[in-house]
UniProtKB/TrEMBL annotation:
InterPro entries reported in the protein's UniProt record: DHPA_dOase_Mn/Fe, Glyas_Bleomycin-R_OHBP_Dase, Glyas_Fos-R_dOase_dom, GlyoxalaseI/FosfomycinResist, VOC_core, Xdiol_ring_cleave_dOase_1/2, XylE-like_N
Coiled-coil blocks: none
Source organism of the structure: Alteribacter keqinensis
Listed name of the protein: 3,4-dihydroxyphenylacetate 2,3-dioxygenase
GO MF term list: 3,4-dihydroxyphenylacetate 2,3-dioxygenase activity; ferrous iron binding
Family from the record: Belongs to the extradiol ring-cleavage dioxygenase family.
Quaternary context: Homotetramer.
Length: 328
């Protein structure tokens, strides 16, 4: 590859009530509010030195505007432009100054219909890692990954590994060894993005890294004390895939957030992807309660990058839907 995608960078979510959303993300989960106005709230984790990793925008209906990846420099954007143009994908440039705190960006509808954004520059701010007096809620540290529901996981897998330079850490194999789900990374952890077989394209969740497992448990106490018990959708528990300790939440607009800790290093060039059989009950939950139907069926609608007022149409997956049996 002649371009360098570094990591998962930011997400832009449309929400109906900014104050209600801010209360959930800042007061309950402990995000740092970098800036806000009457139509935007810019949020980051305690560890993050970039201006934001989550942008909430006021809108009539909830949706996902883009999921973003940081690249090494602006020349990478030009090279990605050439690749996407060769593949016949729809591209939109956002010039410097059109988005607050972010430099020039390249937006594209990927092969699955997901709205991607690539950027090299974002304003830097004070890192709050050692401002322990500001730690509250889940003590969110940094953005970690996206999880997306797509109609054809193998198609997404082939494009991201062969064209964008992602590596696979783990995958779920269905009948005839077809890929039912895949965990792909650029940074040396389990994933920057995962693809799951399902009605898509949709964003299943955004994963945020916590420094320790007790922060996740503490988040449950805080959420319950603040009246957010019903927002806890699944967990706490441990995934078989990725080995991560997890908690899934739904924000006031239904967007799903995963609080996440405990995966592993994947930097070695001889690392071999871990295969999980679709019938292995430990793959989704190593231990913990069964996931509700909503976890398998519900996800956030995504926008068209060329016509943001339009949502991408979804379709049925190419492989059969499966709800695993869990170890309780």
């Amino acid at each position: 590859m002649d371009f360098n995608i570094i990591r998962t960078g930011r997400a832009v979510l449309n929400v109906k009530d900014l104050e209600r959303s801010k209360a959930f993300y800042v007061d309950a989960l402990g995000f740092i509010e970098t800036e806000a106005d009457d139509r935007h709230v810019y949020l980051r984790g305690l560890e993050e030195h970039n201006h934001h990793s989550l942008l909430l925008k006021k809108a009539e209906e909830p949706s996902v505007e883009v999921i973003g990846y940081k690249v090494y420099d602006d020349t990478d954007l030009e090279r990605l432009d050439r690749l996407f143009s060769q593949k016949g994908l729809e591209i939109r440039w956002m010039e410097r100054g059109t988005q607050h705190a972010v430099g020039r960006t390249l937006r594209v509808q990927d092969v699955s219909g997901l709205p991607l954004e690539f950027y090299a520059e974002m304003e830097t701010v004070e890192r709050m890692l050692q401002r322990y007096d500001l730690y509250k809620g889940a003590r969110v540290q940094r953005i970690d990954h996206f999880n997306c529901m797509v109609r054809d996981v193998e198609k997404a897998y082939e494009f991201y590994t062969k064209e964008l330079g992602f590596a696979c850490s783990e995958y779920t194999a269905a009948e005839d060894e077809k890929i039912w789900a895949a965990w792909l990374h650029r940074k040396p952890s389990v994933h920057d993005v995962a693809f799951m077989n399902g009605n898509g394209p949709r964003l299943h969740h955004i994963g945020y890294w916590l420094s320790d497992q007790m922060s996740l448990i503490h988040a449950c106490d805080v959420l319950a004390a603040m009246g957010y018990t019903e927002n806890i959708e699944r967990g706490p528990g441990r995934h078989g895939l990725s080995n991560a300790f997890f908690l899934y939440l739904r924000d006031p607009d239904g967007h799903r957030i995963e609080l996440y800790n405990g995966d592993y290093l994947t930097s070695d060039p001889d690392f071999k992807p871990v295969r999980w059989d679709i019938n292995d009950p430990r793959r989704q939950t190593f231990w913990g309660h069964a996931a509700p139907d909503s976890w398998f069926n519900e996800a956030s609608a995504v926008q068209n990058v060329l016509a943001p007022e339009k949502l991408m149409e979804t379709g049925e997956p190419t492989l059969k839907q499966r709800k695993p049996t869990f170890v309780i």
